[in-house]
Write a structure and sequence with these properties.
It is a single chain. The chain is an all-alpha fold and about 80 residues long. It contains 2 helices and no strands. The chain has one domain (about 1-55). Helix content is about 25%, strand content about 0%. The protein is elongated and about 55 Å long.
Length: about 80
């Protein structure tokens, strides 16, 4: 059994499993809830984790971009 720790705020009784853990979970899970009173530290950690979720898979539209290897190597 593996353990993964993360902070989450339940929304309508649902806790979202962060994207980075979803591929690791291949069967049923045992859930233990530990409610923690909000403090500055835990609020900052939760905010940082939510922000890191946004940075996991950056993407850009590159339609119409032309890549010139010579120009790139000249830098």
């Amino acid at each position: 059994m593996e353990a993964y720790e993360f902070y989450a705020t339940p929304e309508n009784g649902t806790i979202k499993i962060p994207e980075q853990y979803r591929p690791l979970i291949k069967s049923w899970v045992k859930v233990i809830l530990l409610e923690q009173a909000p403090s500055n530290e835990t609020t900052q950690k939760a905010d940082a984790l939510r922000k890191s979720d946004l940075l996991l898979a950056p993407s850009m539209k590159t339609n119409g971009w032309k890549f010139n290897r010579e120009e790139a190597n000249a830098r």
